[in-house]
Here is the input.
Amino acid sequence: MKMENFDEQEKKVNVSNIKEDESLSYTDIEDLPSRYKLYSKGVMIKGRPLKLFELKKLSTMTELNSDTVINDVLKSSLKGINIDDVIVADKLYLIFWLRANTYREPGYSVNFHCSNCKQDSSYDFNLNNLKVKYVDESFTLEKLTFSLTNGDTISFHIPKVSDEKRTIKFKNTYASIIKDISNDIFDMSIVIDQINGENLELMDKYDYISNLTPQLFSQLKSKIKKWDFGIMTDLEVICNKCGGKIPVGITFREEFFIPEYNDEWIADNEF
Here is the structure.
């Protein structure tokens, strides 16, 4: 079976524009891990409180459908940008921003077990609970081009939602043909734009990386990861029993997106 030119297939796909609901109140999302350094000049993403059906959709996510679910919710609840242009490292922050701005009043608490006082506790989620690694202030787009010690010059881009979709489509299309594809090499192939000033087909870039020496591969991987940013994998919350700052792992369970309302929490949480 002949593998069609995947890059050419991608060019034929028309990305639909965002449908904006002008009757809803949207707020500028001014703080992103990317600091807006990777978006076109003048872009400002706006968001609104989530609707119940969107929260229900998020609360039923699985490992297999999480990217699709999150992308669908962001597409319906954001405006000012095409979802495909959202930086992947900003995507989870945007979901947390929407969650925090849906439940603005205290009392919508999430249960957890405090590792400090060993008691069952709860917290009201807000953006201050997030540990955010921002893109370095010194970052410029010019720094996405670098040279390896063999003299090869590599240009790449920070992954976007469109890259995620492209990866899923490719793997679904060619799963029966390519059995032993390396995920980390494929992910690097997706974000590399040019090698020595030349635009190569996706699998040519994959082959180039696969044939690097271990030393050159390590250089390539490190250079691409140098500008990593995003949110950390755990929240920092305050226990309402002992007042300690406790790390809590991020989990997208139903209780997080549709929390119980506890008006007693408000009085109990006053230290």
Residues 88-102 form the longest helix (15 residues).
